[in-house]
Amino acid sequence: MSPSSTLFDSDFLSRLEALELVARRLLRGGYRGEHNSRQWGRSLDFADFRRYQPGDDLRYVDWNIYSRLERLFLKLFAAEEDLTLHVLVDGSASMGFGEPLKFDYARRLAAALTYVASNRMDRVLLNTFRSSLELLGDAIRCKRQMRAALEALGRLACGGPTHLAEACRTFAAKTRYPGVVVVISDLLGDESACDALRLLSRRGHDCVLVHLLSEDDIEPLLEGPLRLVDAETGAALNLSIDSDSRDAYRRRLQQRLSALESHCRRLRIEYLRVSTALPFEDVVLKYLREGRLFA
Fold it and tell me: What is the mean pLDDT of the chain?
């Protein structure tokens, strides 16, 4: 049996069909091409300014502002076009833990987002990242192409270290126009998350961070003397775990989660903390109900 048929079995497909029925009711009245997006072009309506970033097209610099402030600003123009949804799935070694596996949950969630978006005839580009970024095939924009998406996700294996900022630099260099970017990651062992999110935000993308944690990450059931080995770096640590050390772990975890959420809020990035104990349909429907991703 192939990995994709095991991961995306008949039960999963029936859950997708049920998800589509709910999505259709929530999105009734929508149509292809109705999404507001920002592009650059002389024939489009002016929308806003933003500061110049290295690599931007100098044709859209507002030289009147430069003559007054001696700072480079670009004109932004609003256009109506199809939405492009970019899904970035963490494939590092730390995702291979939990029950269910965080990696399996992330792939199922990515498939569900793709299914709903392609039903709207939006473009979906699936990516996985570790220390670098990998695009998983061509753009998907209809349900007929879902088989290829499921097979690509099913073939993936997790392993190795992660560096989200490096992956996002590659993504920013290859992505011409802003879109919706959903990053699905546990962010464990990666101190580059803040830099990565800042880069995506500055490039004009509408970003969503799905911070995926297992119940073992949130409340580890460990006791006594142990030797812990980092799944991504191989570094080992000998320690004895008791109630005091578990309390200290909870405090440090909460501090990190609060810091990430605050950072996302400052950057106007949607932050969603998800436990693998939560059905993936509920995560997708949260955004459908709020009109966040597909409305």
Answer: 82
CB of 45 closer than 8 Å to CB of 76: no
Phi (first) and psi of residue 182, to 5 degrees? -110, 115
Query: What does the chain come to in residues?
Result: 295
- Domains of the chain, start order: 3-33+82-213+275-290 (3.40.50.410), 36-80 (no CATH)
AA letter at 261: E
Question: Model's pTM, two decimal places?
Answer: 0.78
Compute the Cα dihedral for 105, 107, 111, 117 and give only its sign: positive
**SS3 track for 187-250:** CCCCCCHHHHHHHHHHCCCEEEEEEEECHHHHCCCCCEEEEEECCCCCCEEEEEECHHHHHHHH
Task: Enumerate residue ranges in the chain where pLDDT < 50.
Answer: 29-44, 78-80, 291, 294-295
3-state helix, strand, coil in the chain (%, to 5): 45, 25, 35
Q: Over the stretch 183-237, which tens digit does the pLDDT of each residue have? A: 999 998 777 888 898 998 888 888 999 999 999 999 988 888 889 888 888 889 8
The H or E element that residue 263 is part of is helix 243-266
